[in-house]
């Protein structure tokens, strides 16, 4: 059974198909058709809805893609859709969209309205960078975005209290009253999902159901249902396990709970490694980052995930658990082959351990994709270097998009270690990359482009560390 | 509007009358559905309430590019509970072919499949998922045939869907031979997925007498009506098509909205149940056609200044497997192969290549952008060859006002605004100052390079199939003075309904909230042309204006008679009517007219004057007028990765006397960004089996918010009424701004050319993805290296000498 607020209405659902997405729930069950399906793959944002949940004594409002979210994730939360904003008059974000001519065909508009609504809830005043971030996951084919940005500005500048602010204390109390305290279960037509609330329960369930799929953000797993049309008979949802969310900053390392959303990782990672944070801002879209987890991005073991190369370069380790046994594994031993990991049956990632930055350490990260925003990398690269008196004392380099797994560049590192940090060394190291990787050609890039870009990113890293006045990043222009 | 409104005094009414109308033409009114868009209340077809016995359709697509179908067994479909019907081509009761202009598009494949994604069978079930599972359970066996997948192969084998066509002016062969300079080259232009946010969808309800009520997301209700009637084998009068709004069209729903509607109709006919078909995104992108990719070869001769003397252009359009609208599309590419330039002696040849891909179709610009891109590439090539600023070569070749003003299809370019507009934009965007700044930046920036380009647009307005240039409207005024407006155009987001309502508001001088805009419906306005070719407001606005004027004239006649005044004494303003010096409300006059037995309903009709085109002679006046625009874009590229950022775009665009400047600016901005997407990140990639690999937004990248220019300045040309007698002297705006996006591609090439000191023209096919930009940079680096090597050799030789 799951309980959630559909705007103000308490819904108690115990017969829902655990493979049902929030989008289909809204459109087909609740007959709320304001939320649109544009792609059913989390790439267009037309289905953007807002979920509110208690965060201390406040409500936290976040956008997500209804098409990628299974209903189990709603347990204990408030679901707000485009129909819920208007009262007697249009909500200020809706009025701003009207005033600025922000809609043409109108199909993407509900999604934009919800992204703007969450933006308005999460900012004070107009912040163009936050606006841009809030809208990067919403595609509009008609307007060219300029009027929508104008609407965002109007809505944020003229922010007034709305019905959600007025009802916040009440909503908070109602949500607290329905927070799950034990494992929630949804069963329908031989499909089951479990949502445990403790690590121990998760471990136990996973031992009992080794065939289960672990559901975290679900931003990739849901595609198996919505795109590949393969039902997921048993899922264990980890999103309600408080102990697997959050970040501990210890003396020598960060410990990040595997179920921590990428949005929640950005601040701590930026503080430690600025470029990690910057790259995360280009990781998919805000809707996705609000859902997707760091553990999921690793566990998914995609060769084109964006955090693994960075974590590999940083020497991250994983705390794995199976039942009540845990072990710590260096990340580079985790990826074995294309989508094959060192996880045993019933074993899962509980925490990610990332060494803290040390003085003199250089960390550079690059993401190269066809489109700047919300695109999968053709090549992703991370350089973790230590250079003392012009000599490379430490070099850990990893790439994504260059092999069947995210992978360290061993030959390249070998050339660099102990060598002068010079153009000559860089050229040798760039040549070595051709031994490290034999990338493939696909619709994102050709193998030749991938290799040349991988080499050029090393060159760029060199330029940035030796000629800091040289401009090297188009993304610096906004 | 009702009898219960407070009665106003003559003085009050006089004040309102004098205040004038605020919702007529020229006002920046919001989109008629804006409030409904933002609340989710706007209803699209998939949002309509479903019936308890509703069927959902899924079509199983061909997995082969070209194959004979040797067996279809539908019996396994029925093993799945919830399946109502599974059909193949033989189950279609009427005509199988739904080709829009020429036959060639079977509703379901019969005997052969001709592309990966072609609908082969259809299954109807209680829900979409069941229909899909059942469709995949069917057994279909193929025997492979040789596919033609590349446009070059089709061209060399003359594998065409229809014969090639040629425009000739002067003698290009002699001119080329005599020209002081001559360049040859080729260019591959990529296609483009429409990516309307609402995928193709239709929902039908069988009616008595064997008819169908069809809700279709289509730009062409009459075409869908015809297609449905034909597949059912019933006359068109049994079929009604209703179209309230589309979630985007862009040309993709001009001819290809017919398939889901016709399939639904066949299934509804066979089962008697209401039926809906909505294509999931992946299926939509596999099944439906896109913008035509083109392969261009050019041979151009010019003088020392860069003035064109002769040109031969071969434009080969990749049409996909069937004719669809390709003939007219390749024609329009040819018509726009001059863009803004006097070609001199020109031979423009258009080929219609048949390949085993989805049938490429209308897309904003309808071939025009491809033709225009070809000549803009030639301009850049000449400029680099002569070491000139490309803008200088462009303006040098602009059509003259009184001479050098005849196109290669022998239409005289009249009322050309481009000289003035280019001068104004060059000034306002500080082109030359920024050009100097960019040169300085590029000298000192080894990794990032900037590029700048100012490109013009001249786009011909009118369907080139002249008969399509007609529009219709129906206006009913009810006894309370409320107005029901219907016209043959369709609303796809472009604001057509708003503009047409403004026209009617202007004629009657009433507030726009009095006018109820209703769904386009084939039983209100028949035999409509598609809402395409940017013609929506021109044709339907004028038809509605005519309908409104007919009724207004009746009202004037009536009032003059009734009050015994002259016609000139009856004037309308701001919902009031003055009859000599007596004022009354509009609704009061309507009530009087009704009692006076005056018809308050009228149709309106319009056909575009002056246009004709003799295709045999390739000569005529296919366009009523031209719309003009110019854009200047500045980009920044990364020479290590090919990534880029659009820094600034300035646009000056001509819409004549704007019917609604807010909507027009929306069209200009949106068109520009869409055009930019076509030329930058939107890449269609097929595998060697002809399967589209970029079949969803995860892999096919339309512009997102970060892709719009950091600094975006858009202006409409002011005080320039359309000299042609269009509706309130406005100009069409749907397509022309799309081609302003060409400035971004040219700016990217400019940035790349800087790597070799602007002495060479980089070959960058479109879309100019970061990868293609990087290869352009590498090409320039190699050239520069070779050149500096050869310079060194030259120096050595000189020293030796």
From TrEMBL, chain A:
Residues 1-85 form the 2Fe-2S ferredoxin-type domain. It holds the Pfam family Fer2. The keyword Iron applies. It comes from the Bacteria. SMART domains: CO_deh_flav_C (SM01092). PROSITE patterns: 2FE2S_FER_1 (PS00197), 2FE2S_FER_2 (PS51085), FAD_PCMH (PS51387). Gene3D superfamilies: 3.10.20.30, 3.30.465.10, [2Fe-2S]-binding domain, CO dehydrogenase flavoprotein, C-terminal domain, Uridine Diphospho-n-acetylenolpyruvylglucosamine Reductase, domain 2. GO terms for molecular function: 2 iron, 2 sulfur cluster binding; FAD binding; iron ion binding; xanthine dehydrogenase activity. Keywords: FAD, Flavoprotein, Iron, Metal-binding, Oxidoreductase. Residues 186-359 form the FAD-binding PCMH-type domain. This is Xanthine dehydrogenase small subunit.
From TrEMBL, chain B:
The keyword Metal-binding applies. Coiled coil: none annotated. The keyword Metal-binding applies. InterPro entries: Ald_Oxase/Xan_DH_a/b (IPR000674), Ald_Oxase/Xan_DH_a/b_sf (IPR036856), Ald_Oxase/xanthine_DH-like (IPR016208), AldOxase/xan_DH_MoCoBD1 (IPR008274), AldOxase/xan_DH_MoCoBD2 (IPR046867), AldOxase/xan_DH_Mopterin-bd_sf (IPR037165), Xanthine_DH_Mopterin-bd_su (IPR014309). Its cofactor is [2Fe-2S] cluster; FAD; Mo-molybdopterin cytosine dinucleotide; Mo-molybdopterin. Pfam families: Ald_Xan_dh_C, MoCoBD_1, MoCoBD_2. This is Xanthine dehydrogenase molybdenum binding subunit apoprotein. It comes from Pseudomonas duriflava. The lineage of its organism: Bacteria, Pseudomonadati, Pseudomonadota, Gammaproteobacteria, Pseudomonadales.
């Amino acid at each position: 059974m799951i309980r959630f607020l559909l705007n103000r209405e308490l819904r108690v659902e115990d017969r829902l198909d655990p493979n049902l997405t929030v989008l289909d729930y809204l459109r087909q069950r609740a007959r709320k058709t304001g939320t649109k399906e544009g792609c059913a793959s989390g790439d267009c944002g037309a289905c953007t809805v807002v979920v509110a949940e208690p965060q201390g004594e406040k409500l936290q409002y976040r956008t997500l893609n209804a098409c990628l979210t299974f209903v189990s994730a709603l347990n204990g939360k408030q679901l707000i859709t485009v129909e819920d904003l208007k009262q007697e008059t249009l909500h200020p974000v809706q009025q701003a969209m009207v005033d600025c001519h922000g809609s043409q065909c109108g199909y993407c508009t509900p999604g934009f309205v919800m992204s703007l609504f969450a933006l308005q809830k999460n900012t004070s005043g107009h912040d163009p960078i936050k606006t841009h971030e809030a809208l990067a996951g919403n595609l509009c084919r008609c307007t060219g975005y300029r009027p929508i940005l104008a609407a965002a500005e109007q809505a944020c500048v003229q922010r007034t209290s709305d019905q959600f602010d007025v009802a916040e204390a009440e909503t908070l109390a109602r949500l607290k009253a329905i927070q799950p305290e034990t494992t929630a279960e949804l069963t329908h037509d031989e499909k089951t999902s479990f949502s445990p609330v403790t690590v121990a329960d998760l471990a136990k369930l996973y031992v009992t159901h080794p065939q289960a799929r672990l559901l975290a953000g679900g931003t990739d797993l849901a595609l198996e249902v919505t795109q590949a049309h393969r039902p997921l008979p048993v899922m264990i949802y980890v999103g309600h396990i408080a102990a697997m969310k959050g970040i501990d900053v210890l003396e020598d390392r960060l410990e990040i709970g595997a179920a921590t959303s990428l949005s929640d990782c950005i601040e701590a990672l930026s503080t430690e490694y600025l470029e990690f944070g910057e790259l995360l801002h280009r990781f998919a879209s805000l809707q996705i980052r609000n859902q997707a987890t760091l553990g999921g991005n690793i566990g998914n073991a995609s060769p084109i995930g964006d955090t693994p190369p960075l974590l590999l370069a940083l020497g991250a380790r994983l705390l794995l658990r199976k039942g009540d046994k845990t072990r710590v594994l260096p990340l580079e031993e985790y990826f074995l082959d294309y989508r094959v990991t060192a996880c045993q049956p019933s074993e899962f990632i509980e925490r990610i351990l990332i060494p803290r930055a040390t003085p003199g350490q250089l960390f550079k990260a690059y993401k190269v994709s066809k489109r700047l925003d919300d695109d999968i990398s053709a090549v992703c690269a991370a350089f973790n270097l230590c250079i003392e008196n012009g000599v490379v004392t430490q070099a850990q380099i990893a790439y994504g998009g260059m092999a069947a797994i995210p992978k360290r560049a061993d030959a390249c590192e070998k050339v660099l270690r102990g060598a002068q940090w010079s153009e000559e060394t860089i050229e040798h190291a760039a040549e070595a990359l051709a031994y490290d990787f034999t990338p493939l050609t696909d619709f994102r890039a050709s193998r030749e482009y991938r290799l040349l870009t991988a080499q050029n990113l090393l060159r760029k890293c060199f330029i940035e560390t030796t000629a800091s006045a040289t401009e090297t990043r188009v993304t610096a222009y906004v | 509007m009702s009898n219960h409104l407070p009665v106003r005094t003559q003085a009050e009414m006089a004040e309102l009358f004098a205040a004038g109308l605020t919702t007529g033409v020229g006002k920046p009114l919001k989109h008629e559905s804006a409030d409904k868009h933002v609340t989710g209340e706007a209803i699209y077809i998939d949002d309509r309430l479903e019936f308890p016995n509703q069927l959902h359709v899924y079509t199983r697509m061909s997995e082969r590019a070209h194959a004979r179908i040797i067996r279809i067994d539908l019996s396994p479909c029925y093993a799945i509970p919830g399946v109502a019907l599974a059909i193949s081509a033989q189950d279609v009761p009427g005509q199988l072919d739904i080709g829009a202009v020429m036959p060639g598009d079977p509703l379901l494949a019969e005997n052969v499949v001709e592309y990966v994604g072609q609908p082969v069978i259809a299954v109807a079930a209680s829900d979409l998922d069941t229909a899909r599972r059942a469709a995949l359970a069917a057994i279909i066996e193929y025997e492979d045939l040789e596919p033609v997948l590349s446009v070059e192969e089709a061209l060399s084998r003359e594998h065409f869907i229809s014969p090639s066509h040629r425009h000739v002016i002067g003698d290009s062969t002699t001119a080329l031979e005599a020209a002081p300079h001559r360049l040859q080259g080729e260019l591959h232009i990529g296609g483009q997925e429409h990516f309307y946010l609402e995928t193709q969808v239709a929902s039908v309800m069988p009616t008595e007498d064997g008819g169908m009520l069809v809700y279709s997301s289509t730009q062409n209700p009459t075409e869908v009506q015809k297609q449905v009637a034909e597949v059912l084998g019933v006359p068109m009068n049994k079929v009604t098509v209703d179209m309230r709004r589309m979630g985007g069209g862009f040309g993709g729903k001009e001819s290809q909205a017919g398939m889901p509607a016709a399939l639904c109709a066949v299934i509804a006919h066979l089962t008697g149940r209401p039926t809906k078909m909505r294509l999931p995104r992946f299926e939509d992108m596999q099944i439906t056609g896109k913008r035509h990719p083109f392969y261009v070869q050019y041979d151009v001769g010019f003088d020392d200044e860069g003035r064109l003397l002769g040109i031969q252009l071969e434009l080969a359009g990749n049409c996909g497997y069937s004719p669809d609208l390709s003939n007219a599309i390749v024609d329009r590419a040819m018509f726009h192969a001059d863009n803004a330039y006097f070609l001199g002696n020109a031979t423009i040849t258009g080929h219609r290549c048949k390949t085993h891909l989805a049938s490429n179709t209308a897309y904003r610009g309808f071939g025009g952008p491809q033709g225009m891109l070809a000549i803009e590439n030639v301009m850049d090539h000449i400029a680099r060859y002569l070491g000139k600023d490309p803008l200088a070569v462009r303006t040098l070749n602009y059509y003259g006002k009184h001479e050098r003003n005849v196109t290669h299809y022998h239409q005289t370019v009249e009322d050309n605004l481009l000289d003035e507009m280019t001068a104004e934009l060059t000034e306002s965007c500080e082109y030359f100052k920024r050009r100097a700044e960019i040169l300085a930046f590029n000298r000192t920036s080894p990794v990032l390079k900037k590029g700048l380009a100012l490109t013009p647009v001249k786009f011909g307005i009118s369907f080139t199939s002249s008969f399509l240039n007609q529009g219709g409207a129906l206006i009913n005024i009810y006894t309370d003075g409320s107005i029901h407006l219907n016209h043959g155009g369709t609303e796809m987001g472009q604001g057509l309904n708003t503009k047409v309502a403004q026209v009617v508001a202007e004629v009657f001088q009433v507030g726009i909230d009095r006018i109820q805009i209703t769904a386009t419906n084939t039983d209100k306005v028949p035999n409509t042309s598609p809402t395409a070719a940017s013609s929506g407001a021109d044709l339907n606005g004028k038809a509605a204006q005519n309908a409104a004027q007919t009724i207004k004239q009746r009202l004037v006649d009536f009032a003059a008679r009734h009050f015994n005044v002259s016609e000139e004494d009856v004037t309308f303003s701001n919902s009031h009517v003055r009859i000599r010096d007596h004022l009354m409300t509009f609704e009061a006059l309507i009530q009087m007219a009704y009692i006076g037995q005056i018809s308050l309903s009228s149709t309106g009709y319009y056909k575009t004057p002056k246009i004709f085109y003799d295709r045999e002679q390739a000569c005529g006046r296919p366009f009523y007028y031209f719309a003009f625009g110019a854009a200047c874009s500045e980009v920044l590229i990364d020479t290590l990765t090919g990534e880029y950022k659009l820094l600034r775009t300035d646009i000056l665009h001509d819409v004549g006397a704007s019917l609604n400047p807010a909507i027009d600016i929306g069209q200009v901005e949106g068109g520009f960004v869409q055009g930019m997407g076509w030329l930058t990140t939107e890449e269609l990639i097929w595998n060697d089996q002809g399967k589209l690999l970029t079949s969803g937004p995860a892999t096919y990248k339309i512009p997102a918010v970060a892709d719009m220019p950091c600094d975006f300045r858009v202006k409409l040309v002011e005080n320039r009424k359309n000299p042609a007698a269009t509706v309130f002297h406005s100009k069409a705006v749907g397509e022309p701004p799309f081609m302003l996006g060409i400035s971004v591609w040219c700016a990217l090439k400019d940035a790349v050319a800087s790597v070799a000191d602007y002495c060479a023209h980089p070959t960058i096919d479109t879309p100019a993805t970061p990868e293609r930009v990087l290869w352009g940079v590498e090409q320039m680096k190699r050239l520069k290296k070779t050149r500096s090597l050869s310079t060194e050799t030259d120096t050595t030789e000189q020293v030796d000498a």
